Hints:
The chain is mainly beta. The protein is built from five helices and 52 strands. Strand 20 (281-290) and strand 21 (295-297) form a beta hairpin. Helix 3 (111-117) runs antiparallel to helix 4. The radius of gyration is 58 Å and the shape is rod-shaped. The chain starts with a strand and ends in a 9-residue tail after the last strand.
Amino acid sequence: MALKTDTFVAQEWTYLDMTQKNSNFFGTNPIKITSFSGFAPQQVLIAKFNIPDSIKKRKLKDVTLELPYNVIVFFEQMAEGFGRTSYNVASPGEPALGPSPEAIDLREITWNIYKSEFYSLLGETILGQGKDMKSLFLDEYLDGKSGVLKGSIWSDLTVDVNDIYYKSIFSLFKYNCIVINTSSSITSIAPNNIKLTIQTEDPSGTFPVELKSPNKGSFLRKDFNNIFKWELGFADYIFSEIKQKNATFQWKEELGSWNSIPISSSNQFIEVEKNTFPKSKIIWKVSVVSENDLTSSSEEQSFTTIDSISTAKAIYPKSIIIDNNKDCTFEWEHIINTGTEQTKAELEYKEEDKDWTPLITVEGNQKSALIKAGTFPPGKLLWRVRTYNMDNVPGNWSKEEEIVSRGSSPAPAPITANTSPRVIVKWQSAGQVSAEVRIRGVVYKVYGNVKQFKCPVYLADGEALIEVRILNEFDLWSAWGSTTTVIKNAEIPRIEVTHKIENYGVSMEWNISGVSAYIYRDGVLIAKTTNNEYVDYESVGEHEYYIMVGNSNGDYAYSEPFTVDVKVPTALLSKRYTGNWIVLDKKRGSFPSHKIESKVKTTYQFYAGRKLPVAYQSDNLTRVHKLDFSFRKRGFSEKVAALSGEEVVYKDCRGDIAVGVMDKVTQDTDTGTDIDFQITETSDGEIKYD
């Protein structure tokens, strides 16, 4: 390496005067310092040198500044500003005054020493002054073309102490000026008494390459184009500004191999096409070739294309009653540190003490969903939502929000039905408090939360439409759910019936026992028995009978119909089901009478403007039979009176019959007994098939 030493004297100089003195140091543009608290007048000077460009293109080895006065500089470890680091030195070689011997008595100071031990106005904090002060000769404060000072030299910006030396030297070699702090007044120094010696050698080495963006650890979307930027710094030993000739952008997965993208220009950025990077942690760096053909690389820096995990927030509805008979919009937020969009969302709901049920899945970034009417069961519900990030990874479930669903329950589903003539229907439902089952148009009630129904009648063969709907706690019916089945009867053995009239009743006997038998008179079911015989005492006149037998599988068989004509000689009265007849055949002084009174309960309501009332009738009918007879012997009337309050059967030769409760008896006894009694007709409870 060829060494070279050059010495320069100051071309001119000036000092910073807190009395606001103007200086023509930069020609017609004066420097005017308006606030420089903490310095004595004429203790800060600015020296200007004429350094040729040929020197600036070489590598700096050493810089020495010679002054005719002692120099006070501020060392790096100071804690209390000027109060601790300003000293008066009377003449070279005399001991420093002050609390400690830390004053520096120099006629010469090399900037290499300055770099490692000291700093002053050239770039770093002056503690105790309340603000940070940077070099007067950095670009932020001095226009290099005109030499005009840009505003105040006080700034809130902080300069890294490790950059002091570089910035000082750069100021010197860019503006040919340097700031010096002295120990006493410097109002009459000759410029040639201020000397600068510069030692240089041939240029070589690297230069700083600083990665600017993205920041370390940033998240980048791999589905976007991404811009990477860097800057070139200045090395202590390179005087001229470094310019990029070309560069190479390099990247790799954390455990992968390097990929390179060349940049054949001075552009200190690159736009990398979308989908270049995989989903991973990515390492990147830049290698730069300068116009002087020097090569330097940045440090490695990382970013990630792995999206963070999202958290959802349920917005609406919450803590309200929703009408399940209407559509309802559910809303939520997608919260994620990377700011990426939602790619999918999943909603769930559940009833109390039950598992979560999927509600709806939304693809894309839409943060609301329309839930159709009839989706929810009635009652108290919880719902929650979670969203997916750009990597299609599900996030955390939101807080569970409570709602109350009021409306019709969904139609029961599924509905199943077997093929038995006593078809068994099963279904699933939510919120049921009762139900209705409609089989071939006939509706049957189901009470409670029972979800199974056996048809109470035997159905004929063929297709049958089965429908079910439920009533919920809000007294609202669901829509009908339906299914179809084909009824098929597997007939049991044929029924053979023998019959006769016995004791004014129809006595029947058949050949099958051990199963339920159903007795029909004129097509109406009148009795059920598990025996293989039955007597019908409630018949008078001609009637048609048949018997049906059914087994536990719901299969059945009918007997051939048969006709019986029961005749009565006079009138008969018996306790029901016994056949213990009392013969009634006389009435003293006249014929026996039979009066029938029927009454329908009717309410009459009068309205303004109407002369006559409006009648409102119920479906209830009261029918009373009034009969009177006479007996020669009192014992017969006592037998009649003993039936008071009992269910009885009355029938006579006219074909009249009354079945009901004898609720009134009147006796008039002298040589014979006249008796009047009243029977109020009653109906039997429903006879159900097993």
